[in-house]
Write the structure tokens for this entry.
Amino acid sequence: MTEDKNDNWLFYVKNIKKTFSSGKTVCYGFQRKIYPHTITFISGDSGVGKSTFLHLLALLDKPDKPDKEDKENTCFNCRLSSVGLQSDLDYYQIYNHRSWRKQTAEIRRNHFGFLPQQGHLLNALTVQQNLELVYHLRKSNFQKGLDDEIQDVIDIIGLKDKLSKKNLSRSPAHLSGGEMQRLAVARAIMGSPKIIFVDEPTTFLNDSLIDKMMHYFVDKVYQKETTIIIVTHDYKALKSKIRNY
Amino acid sequence: MKSFLFLLYRDILPASSPGHHWCSKLSNTMVSLLPTCGLLFLLTIIAFIGLFILSAKKELDTQIYQVQNSPYMALFAEGFIYMPQHNNSSSSDNKKELSFWQNLKLKHIREYAHNVPKAYLNHTIFEKNKIFPFDWAKLFIKRKDGETLAYQKGMVLPFSGVQKDGALLNEIKKNLIHPFHQLPTPSEPYIILSEKALKKFRFNLDHITSDYLYITQNDDNPFIPFKILVARYLPYQFQYILSMEQWRRLDHRYYQKKIKEITIYATDLDNEQTQKTIHNLLQQHFPIQTIGDPFISGDNEALNVTLKTPLQRTEIIQKSIHSDLKDITVDLGSRHENEPGVSFSGAIFHINPVLHENNIFSEEFLYTLQEFMAKEQVKVRGELLQALQEIRKSQQYLTQLQQFFQIFKLLMICVIMIFFAMVLHTKMHRIGTLRMLGVSDMKILAIYATEAILFVCFSLLLGLCIYISFQTLQNNQVNILTWDLIDVMRDMVIAAEIGLVAPSLFFLKKFVPAEMVVFR
């Protein structure tokens, strides 16, 4: 498959590898393109490396440097310009660059949203601070007031009635499991990221929340505001939810 | 900046932990604050020990300074560079000349001191000198209660050159009688001897019970035209002379020992004939080339050393010298109008403090110096070496203390690193999540670097409070200068920075965000 410049892809992945510190290597011996303003599902059996692939796309991990003979046959690019951001991003180049930590952190901070498998909320921060953190880190001016934005997001995920002011100023460890799930989703969509990475939502989110979340995703994708990449082992269940909208 | 401060604040004080009961809340809060409190505790221990070492160092420095700058130290040095009277050489490099000793550098005795660092070879061994005469002195002796015991003009002679079996000694021994209870009048000529001097004269001191021994003038013996006082309790005079603060800081055992070794001969000479007689007598029994140990005692007023007779000397020096100790002033210039010129007798040299400070005067070096002096046939007094060795011992102790603090600091760095690595391990998930959300590694490092400084400031303050309370409870003086505190703070900041930043750097370099975020 040759690269077509008119082809408006967001990610282009071809024959990448990832070796873990344990020595185990995962080979992604395929070539795929992920297009902007779409919902992409990455599915497969357990242990095949779905989450690792998501981490690689989300700049949370580094792919192996290709061998000399494989170099021509390997590609791992991201065209952020396709979602109205900066120019193309060659993952191999960025990882070989001295300032890759700084660069990748900046991209993650400003353009990516994450919904990890276990929520990964920060218990050292309050509920409100977990939500505000994205804005604090981006140093961006809020289109609305920050409190309004938080209220909107809480409303979207159905937490408005459950989160009292007192709860907002306490650690997330106070919340119930369901509330924590919702808070994790809320944090992922705070600040309207250009690309949202979701890892196995069906394993830790309940059905009603998945409904709400997928509804929000479809809406955003339809409005061409975001691109969603979801890793799941239950692709059919999620797809059926999209069909409902 | 805002996000940095926000994350820093939450790293030190995490959000309130869950728990419905106050007890569980408290225990959860304690657990969440454990890393912060643990670090503070460790740093406070370092600060406390650092302050104690600093205090000990300060005290030793003061002692060394006092030994180096005390007139006694100067006295000992005087014997060392004494220039014999019969020195007819005019050569500028003559070992007996003052200028030779003034310009003596380490490189000149390099063959004796192979271990001296090259950087110090061009340093002079002695830094400053004082010229003292061998002649007549006005002597004040007061008791502790302020009563004047004696006021005499007299001849200042060294003890070191006394011939033990001389006729004079025999005569003194012969005339030694009961302890006296009355002071001689100032007009009566007499000699003051230290207890040690008497011992050297082979007197048995067992039966001496009072402060002073008094030997009446023996009219039958023309060779003893004066009385003898034995100053057994000279240290008390010095306690009075020195300010209370100086006295408090002195190492009493050391000083008493030294003071007792000081001998004073003082005679009141009213007429020229007596003067001549005594001079001849002294010439006979005290070889002139060994004379040169001036000792001046005094009360709180300035003490005059008045020179009267020109003895055979090569140089005439008139100079005002002020002792380093404020309470004792030696004025060599205050002569009477009709008095002849002052004659040079010997010089007092002070060891170059740069060499002391840089630890050049090792034990070995002192012996080397002694060897050098012996070879050059220069009289070396044991007291000089002893005094220098005392300083050396203090310096060694000081060096040991400093080394201990260095080792302690390294140990603490290791302990902080291990402790913080463990703490970081519990924070890995948090750091991983922050990295996932786009917090840069530099910002995370900056947070821990700032934490280190904040913790050091706080723990130093805490350590200082504990230290001051501790010292106050023991009625000790708190003797710490701001600059020294800054030194301790600098060392602690280095220790804390290494201890906190190094493990952070290790974890950030070793793990990518995806690996860190899964730590639980």
User: Anything to note?
Assistant: The radius of gyration of chain A is 18 Å.
